[in-house]
Structures are given as structure tokens and as C-alpha cells.
Amino acid sequence: MKAISVQNLTKRFGSFTAVDQITFDVDQGEIFGFLGANGAGKTTAMRMLCGLSMPTSGEAMVAGFDLYKDAEKIKQSIGYMSQKFSLYEDLTIRENIRFYGGIYGLSNSEIKTKTEHLVSSLKLEDKINSLVKSLPLGWKQKLSFSVAMIHDPKIVFLDEPTGGVDPITRREFWTMIFEAANRGTTVFVTTHYMDEAEYCNRVSIMVDGQIAALGAPVELKIKYTAKDMGEVFLQLARRAKRGDD
Amino acid sequence: MGAVEVKNIKKTFTVEKSTVTALQDISFEVKQGELFGLIGPDGAGKTTLFRILTTLMLANSGSASVDGYDVVKEYKEIRKRVGYMPGRFSLYQDLTVEENLSFFATLFNTSIEENYDLVKDIYVQIEKFKTRKAGALSGGMKQKLALSCALIHKPAVLFLDEPTTGVDAVSRREFWDLLHNLQRQKITILVSTPYMDEASLCDRVALIQEGRILDIDSPEGITKKFNHTLWSVRSETMYKLLTELNEQPEVNSCYPFGQEHHVTFKDDNENVKLIEARLTQLGHKSLKFERIHAGIEDCFMDLMEQHRKS
Asked: Which of A38, A136, A175 sits opposite B43 (nearest CB)?
């Protein structure tokens, strides 16, 4: 079974078609890069896949559940983090873990075990009772990723997880992604860093609400005779007609 | 005299009863007409520095001048002479595009017409939405309006705080083209960014991390100082390669870099043939070692590591 399976998924806002009949699959344990220029429709598509927004038409199965019938079950089976919103700044690390563990229905003893494991693997033992807002951004993002994975979701959605993060931490973050994928978690990730597109098993590039290209980085580079994914992206995104207005 | 002079600026904040040092003893100079980049991650102190230089915040100690005026004693003069585009969109959301621009022109005793030449290239791209409220613009359009408003009084020095953060690769290139056009009009530009690849588009850059300047130089000057032998390594299985390179005792650092890994060895004259043979035995196909020159990001990480150790 595919982790995500999407057919002709469409979302219209009035006369504006934000997402226009997109079709793609994501395999279990795959790192899938979801690229596109600002305004191409990435966020709208991602919100639908997370069960937060109902499609206008089309079909989608996420983690084995139908988007129309079982949106709540989808929410329980996925993890989500974004750069803009992740953890509660005015709660401590321990409180954030406890809060998210509770939301995802973990028992007290599970939360206790998970907290110990998570804090020791991130080497945050001395900080556990500090407010999240006192942490540097890079630490926050790594913690946020671990919290998004607290209920061992089948799929984790990462929306620009490394924006503004220093170059070493950005690579440590990707090591966490590689490890998660190695354990079988499906990773669905957006980014503006084109070097990160190279780390994905496959990427899709959205232009004007449609998927303009989809494939492994190596295939796309051959197809567009480009030296790297940055060039592939520029070639495709420059074709955009609708701009981001 | 430099367009911007910063001497031993220090700034601390109190958060939760503990003291956080945002800037520790920062000094540098920006020349007239220069396009100067402050390159560093979030939390490095870039915004704090900009707020001190635009006279919106006082430093704990040290001194600074902008366009020849002292940031404390002559702050009113500075405010007439600088344009500032904060990282967060700060225009009036409930005014239209045109109202915002004319408001900022009026504040500085000028008019849109008087300095239209300066903003023309940027403003024409949003002019068709001039009756739209600023709050209803897309991210890219807001950014162009904010830049127009920061320029409308023909500032001597322009401060742009992370104008390209969260912006896609195509729009980022377009924005840098705009900056190079502005530079031709003799405006000194200070721009901050977390994107290391944008350093090469500046005349000179300061690499900044945890309130400290790691290095200041031209982009070429910085990369020339990288004093290790740097290798690019590839194989068909890049994650396996990453973990196995990290397990080699001779390896000093190994970081993923897009489609390759960048590796330095403890001994710069290391015989890579031996390591290559060892990795081939571990099952790597199409294994390729190649000597390369360091880029800004390699240098930034190397300087970060040096600071961590010291």
C-alpha cells in the first residue's frame, strides 16, 4: 500500500483554482520533496493531505484512510511540523512533550518513556524544565520534529522545517530525517533550499497549481539537462504564469 | 569615512531573569556605495544590529555612526537618511498600496513623483494593484511594496532585514537583481540573510553567529582562507556513504552538500586511495573523490566548529 495516493486532487477558492488536478503517489518510507514557488499551491495541497481542508474534487488516501470519510483518522496517523508553528513557546520542553503526547492519546507511562528517550537523544537533559522560547532556533526545530514523531506516525509532514537554521544544525536536522525514513516513516517535506531537494528520494515541483515535474533528482536533472536541482527548479518555476498575486 | 561605522557594540537582553548576549563586541565598517551582507542564521543578532543602527534600540556599550551621524546623539538626522525594511511586514495593512507609498513619501517631505525613478523598476510590478489594501497582497507583492516605501525618500543607506527569507529560489534571484540596480544609484545597502549562497552576490560580507562576527571579507577573500584540503565524495548510496564516511578514523568532518558530501581529513595530505578502497569494499558503486574549492557555507561551518572548540 502507498503511504499517500492522490488522484486529480483539486481545490478552488471562488474562481481561483489553487490546486489543479494533481495526481501522485508516495511510497512507504520515502523522503518525498514537495517543491514549488511561492503561490504555486503547495500549502493548500498540504493542508488537504493533512485533513485540514476539504478538496473541491479528486480523490486521496493518506496512511490508508480516505480524505473525505476519515479525515480525523488521518490526523491521528500523521505528524506535522512547520517553521511558523511548532511548539508552545511559553511551555517548558517537558510540558510541550506532555501536551502533544496527550493530544495524540499516549498513556502517562508512554509519555514518561518517550520524554526520557527524546530528551536524551537530543541531549536536552539540562534544559527539560526551560521554556521553549529560551532555546536557539535549531534546537527548537529538532525538538519540534521529535515531538511531531512522538506517536510514531506513519507519515510526517514537514513544512519548510529548516528555514533560517544554521548550516550545521540544518544538516543535523536532515540526518534526523534520514534516520526516520530508514526506520520506515514516510517523510513529506517542503523547502526553499535546493541542496535539500537533492536529499529526497523523489521530488515534485508545482507550477501554477499543477505538478509540472515529478521524479528522482537524478532523473529530473537528466530530463532538464541541469547540473543540479536548483537549475531544474528555476527552469520550471520561470514558466509560471499566474505569479504570486 | 565609512557609510556605516560600528565600534565595539555590545547588547544584552534579560530573558526569564537570565542575561542573553545578543551582540558581543561587534566592530566593522561599510564603505559608501557598498552592498554589504550580514550572513547568519536566525538568532545570530542581525536584527538587533539593524535596530541599533536605525536608532530604534540602544546598545549597552560601544558606538556607531550612519552616514556620518552618531546613532545616539544625532538619531534624528539618521532617521531622515536611512531606509529600513524590517523582516516582518510592517506597513499599514488597511491602507492601499498607493496610500502606503504616498504616506511614507509625505512623512519624509517628498512625493512619489519626486523620487519615482528610484522605485520605478519595483513599483511598476505592483502598480496594477495600487488600489488594493496592503494586507490583501501576496508575500512577494508585500515585499516589493515594503522596498518601495523604504526607498521613496532616496535614503543614503538602506537596511534590509532578511528580505529573502521564506522566498522561493526564482523570486530570490529577482530580488538580488533589484538590489544590484539600486546599488548603481549610489545607495549603500546593508542586507541580512540566512542563505549562505547569497553571500557571493555581495561586495563584502560579515559572517555572524551567536552575536559574534566570525569573519569579514569579500566572498572570495573568505573562501580563500579555508585552510583544509576539501573533498567532494559521491556514490550511488549517499546516506550509507554519509554514515560510513563518518565512521572512518581519518575523517575530520563530513557534511551532506546537495548531491555530494564535503569531507575534510585530520591529515590534509591523507592518501584518499586507501579510504576509497575501504569504501568500495563496503559495497559502494560509482564512488568518486574529487578535490574542490570551499564555498561560503563550508567556511561558515568550519568557523562555527572552531568557535565551538575554543
From this structure: A136
Backbone φ, ψ for residue B285 (5° rounding) = -105, 155
Q: Which CATH class is domain B230-292?
A: alpha beta
Encode pLDDT of B215-236 as tens digits: 999 999 999 999 999 999 999 9
Extents of the domains making up chain A: 4-83+155-237
What are the C-alpha distances in Å from A85 to residues A144, B36, B238, B258? Answer: 9, 31, 31, 26
**Across the interface, do B304 and A136 touch by the CB < 8 Å criterion?**
no
Residue B166 to residue A178, Cβ atoms within 8 A: no
Counting one residue from A and one from B, how many pairs have CB atoms under 8 Å apart? 109
Burial category of B240 from C-beta neighbours within 10 Å (exposed 0-12, middle 13-18, buried 19 and up): middle
**B4-218 CATH, one of 3.40.50.300, 3.40.50.410, 3.30.470.20, 3.30.565.10:** 3.40.50.300
CB neighbour list of residue B264: distance below 8 Å, 6 or more residues apart: B228, B229, B230, B231, B251, B252, B253
Contact A163 B166 (CB under 8 A): yes
Domain boundaries, chain B: 4-218, 230-292
Residue A218: which H helix or E strand, with range? helix A217-223
Asked if A160 and A196 touch (Cβ cutoff 8 Å), the reply is no
- Exposed / middle / buried, residue B38 (Cβ in 10 Å: 0-12, 13-18, 19+): buried
Which CATH code is given to the segment(s) A4-83+155-237?
3.40.50.300
Q: Do B301 and A233 touch (CB under 8 A)?
A: no
For residue B260, the chain A residue with the least C-alpha distance is: A198
- In tens, the pLDDT along A7-53 reads 999 999 999 999 999 999 999 999 999 999 888 999 999 999 999 99
List, in sequence order, every residue forming a beta bridge with B15; answer none if it has no partner: B18
Judge: B168–A192 Cβ closer than 8 Å, yes or no: yes
The pTM (predicted TM-score) of the whole model is 0.91
Provide the shortest C-alpha distance from residue A244 to chain B (in Å): 6
